[in-house]
Write a structure and sequence with these properties.
Layout lengths: L3 E5 L4 H12 L3 E6 L5 H9 L8 E5 L8 H5 L4 E4 L13 H21 L3 E5 L14 E3 L13 H19 L5 E7 L1 E3 L12 H8 L5 E2 L2 E6 H13 L7 E4 L3 E3 H12 L10 E2 L1 H10 L4 H4 L6 E3 L2 H7 L6 H14 L5
Parallel strand pairs: 1-2, 1-4, 2-3, 4-5, 5-7, 6-14, 7-11, 8-10, 9-13
Antiparallel strand pairs: 10-12
Helix pairs in contact: 1-2, 1-7, 4-5, 8-12
Length: 339
């Protein structure tokens, strides 16, 4: 393959693996970072999997500011917009997440359009294509849009609103830039460095024994390597233009994740608790621990998403959740991040 791809959020868990996969496929990559001090960290993380040589460069740009984005887009063929503003999910101010996510996405799209980028692939979330009611169950697909409500967690609202804003912008744009969105589930899998484990922190906490039990929450686990593969397929497939693609994996309860770790890792999983926490215990704990508030409404819920479209249009098939979970744990152990 040839071409130059801009990856926003090069310091992120998914962004790092995207850089690796693009380099392995022969692309030149430019990654956005907020400061030059992050460049060496990204390069070292990527080098653990592939030699970046002179095919990895950096641009300084912040989703909260206009400056730097035109320079970042110069000479770029494709954009993987994976960056998400940092925020406190437990904060009662939802706009702290919503406004930066929406405005940052629009900054990226405006700059991409001005530069004549061929296609932007934006990372949204499966929760942007889910029933608003957490009591509803069933299988949904990309045709469903989450109806925004102040009762929803701020992160879910930010992803839905940002993706909506992206599609509204493209509908009003007269340029030739195309948009595709990818809606992942719970992203796990190997880590590139102990300093940035991203959402793999779920498995990390289990291995460290800091999770006294597993809440009855189900995850649609997608391997970070499979998710990146989906983005790249969506980036180049002509039929993917103007489409949403769910990138979820198999559904698995957190209690079953703990059991898989115990069964597959032996002594390395000695601290993993396979106890399933009663819902009432989690709800009481959330009164004292604000970080738990966002998950209480998911207790016992079994909503699932269909990836039939991604399989049909892009030929994408995710690996088993058990394989992803074990690879994630082994990677954390190998990087010294499990104790």
């Amino acid at each position: 393959m040839s071409g130059r791809v801009l990856v926003t959020g090069g310091t992120g868990y998914v962004g790092g693996w995207a850089i690796v996969a693009l380099l392995e496929r022969g692309y030149d990559v430019r990654a956005t970072v907020r400061s030059s001090g992050k460049e060496a960290l990204v390069r070292a993380a990527v080098a653990s999997e592939v030699d970046p040589g002179d095919r990895l460069s950096f641009a300084h740009a912040d989703l909260l500011q206009d400056e730097g984005w035109d320079t970042a887009m110069d000479g770029i063929d494709y954009v993987l917009h994976m960056a998400s503003p940092l925020g406190d999910e437990s904060s009662r101010d939802a706009d702290a997440l919503i406004v930066p996510a929406r405005d940052g996405t629009l900054r990226v799209l405006r700059a991409a359009s001005r530069a004549g980028v061929k296609r932007v692939v934006m990372t949204s979330a499966a929760n942007a294509a889910s029933p608003t009611s957490y009591t509803a169950e069933g299988v949904t697909d990309e045709t469903l849009w989450t109806i925004d409500s102040p009762s929803l967690p701020a992160y879910r609202r930010s992803k839905t609103i940002a993706e909506r804003a992206a599609w509204d912008f493209m509908a009003a744009s007269s340029g030739g830039t195309e948009l595709t969105t990818v809606l992942p589930g719970a992203v796990l899998g190997p880590v590139l460095t102990a300093d940035n484990v991203g959402t793999a922190s779920i498995v990390q906490r289990m291995l460290r024994g800091t999770m006294p039990g597993a809440p009855r929450i189900g995850l649609e686990v997608v391997d970070v390597r499979d998710l990146v593969d989906l983005h790249i397929r969506a980036m180049t497939e002509p039929a993917a233009a103007g489409q949403r693609f769910l990138g979820t994996g198999p559904f698995i309860w957190m209690g079953d994740i703990a059991k898989v770790l115990g069964d597959q890792l032996g002594d390395a999983a000695a601290k993993v608790s396979t106890r399933v926490l009663p819902n009432v215990v989690v709800r009481i704990a959330s009164i004292l621990d604000p970080s738990l508030r966002a998950i209480t409404i998911s207790l016992g819920r079994r909503n699932r998403h269909s990836t039939a479209k991604a399989q049909r249009v892009l030929g994408w098939v995710p690996r088993p959740a058990e394989e992803t979970v074990v690879d994630c744990a082994k990677s954390l152990i190998a990087h010294g991040a499990a104790s």
